Amino acid sequence: MAYDPATVLPAAYLNWLRELARERRFGAGDRRGSLNLIDAGARDRCREAVLSGASADLGRPLAPASSNRGDGRQAFRLEVFYTDGPIGMGSDHLELDCHGVVNTHIDGLNHIALDQTFYGGYRVDDGNAPSLAELASGGIATRAVHVDIPAVRGTPWVEVDRPVTGEDIERALSRAGVTFEPGDALLLDMGRDRFEAAGQELAADRRSGVGADGARWIEAHGVSIVCWDFLDAVAPEEPRAPVHMLNWAIGLVLVDNCDFARLRAALPEGQASGALVIGPLPIAGATGCNVNPVVVM
After folding, report:
1. Beta carbons within 10 angstroms of residue 268's beta carbon
2. How far apart are CA 271 and CA 142, in angstroms?
3. Is the domain defined by 5-60+104-296 classed in CATH 2.30.30?
4. What pLDDT does residue 66 have?
5. Mean of the per-residue pLDDT values for the chain?
6. Is 218 left (phi over 0), alpha (psi -120 to 50) or beta?
7. Where are the domains of the chain?
8. 57-88 pLDDT, tens per residue?
9. Cα 190 to Cα 172, 178, 186, 233, distances in angstroms
10. Using one digit for the tens of pLDDT, what is the confidence trace for 107-153?
């Protein structure tokens, strides 16, 4: 079945995405996407951001949920076994379906498709699109900059009717006293942990998150990785998945469903950056996997 992306993406936004894709900013045949931005300067900033060696993880505890496909499979299932003998052994069988809005995961560059292609123009049916394996090679480490959007808005979390804009990000960076540099990771804290602690639940038809203006800021500023808690804003006035579409257009690497509560508690006063470390599983062909990113301060 052929789908027309113009039914969910405004013409101007769709044309912008296609123009970005045609640029092939990291060269024809690239398989690393925005991780190419992590250059020697970014690695130097990563090292210099470690002051005390304290760390905080961003992963949410894995929890059961239905897959996005609606096929009845679970996003997480664990079976634990004990085998008796002269030396007993505990073992596990684990099932993961990483995508969705529940569990923390990294998106491969074969996750979002447009015009029947993945990032880099690879056809969805040719089986050769860049996948999780390329992101896992060598691991991921770069400077991470934490931006607290609710703090600059004076709200506990990002409101459903006010998608995050580029101006919001700029104000949060100014408050943090950090200059964002190309190759840095953006830790985009929108207060989801407080939202859920207050008994709120994510709705399917209207959801807090980043809008098209915020997506344009991310593209323009050389973000190597976006780690975020709420994801794309879901609202009638916004394109469908405006930031996730950059996975297709420029190979933007995303780590979805982070929890920033531990990081906010651990960051020393006046410090808003650290070293982000992620070790994705090297699964050839996979479109993503669950991860527990760590920020070393």
Report:
1. 10
2. 16
3. no
4. 86
5. 96
6. alpha
7. 5-60+104-296, 62-100
8. 999 999 998 888 889 898 999 999 999 999 99
9. 11, 18, 12, 11
10. 999 999 999 999 999 999 989 999 999 999 999 999 999 999 999 99
Q: What is the structure's pLDDT at 1?
A: 62
